[in-house]
Amino acid sequence: MLKIMKHIKGERSVCGRSRKIAVLSLLCICLTSVFFVACGKNNTDTTEQEGQADAQGDNVVMVYNAGEYIDPEVPKLFEEETGIKVIYDTFETNEEMYPVIQAGGVVYDAVCPSDYMIEKMMQNHLLQEVDFNNVPNIKEIGKDYMKMCEQFDPGNKYVVPYTTGTVGILYNKKMLDDLGVPYPTKWADLWNPKLKGEILMQDSVRDAFMVALKKEGHSMNTVSDAELDEALQDLIKQKPLVQAYVVDQVRDKMIGEEAAVGVIYSGEILYVQGELEGTDVEIDYAIPEEGTNVWFDGWVIPWNAKHKENAEKWMDFLCRPDIAAKNFEYITYPTPNVGALALLDKSYTENKAVFPDMKEVLKKGEVYTYLGEENEAKYNNRWKILKAS
Predict the structure, then answer these.
(1) Is 198 annotated as a binding residue?
(2) What is the pTM of this model?
């Protein structure tokens, strides 16, 4: 049975995927007994964490991760095996994390951002290269995944991949049958007039525009005004069919049978199916044939890290197959760790919604790239027009 406490993917900003985390108080209680977590705490209030780090000297690693994005037993296991104290802090979105690292007032050793944000951090010289001699378990990451990461980390110098996945369409089979609507196979299906009031779109600039851009065969990283204008007009035409632009509620509304289809992250399908286990509600997930976003989150080392080798030990530990498998079973977001896949139950690995044939997905799929502030504005300005329409 899937865990009730799990990581929730959420809001993306104009420059790509970011996360909005629902942190349960129970998790905070559990984690506090193991390591220090800033649950809902302002990141500038770090006296306690820094004091703990100073007390440990060099025998510490300062970790900055999204909330509920790790099995809470993993840091404890790392401490027991290495003797290195884990001082752990959390952020809600990539956009919240970035200025903290940029300012350098709080010095973290290992941080877990998303693909486009990693590229932005690299471009602004906020990262150190990883010494992969200290991360021998990097060999467990599939070669195809490492190649994909080169789209935002040329030469694979800065990132140790952590999780990956796709964006697709979650759909309720019975509700679609009742509406006389075929099960979706492409983004264009989200413009079917019969789905009026039954569509949940992501309340996110890049994800919403990705749907419209890929529908027309364009790159999700386009900065072409003509292509973006076409996508905007498509989204305006679709808007009367949309029940709501939401984030985490896509998952909850689909569980509650409040909508027939929803744009969502692939890792959520296991949670949804787990919640509906024992009911007659059938929910499935489709990766649209026009192509979609293939996303990555990965561990990096900030420019001012004080305990670089400890960070690399942390990364190596997370790449160990048994640890990667343990993490997957907790957060249910796909792992690029080939060694871990061999340890997982076939009910997971044979689920093509979670672990699709990536070679097929990448024929038309793309990784979000950082577009720069000027091009971000192109998306933001059109998003405002859509919301006001």
Answers:
(1) no
(2) 0.79
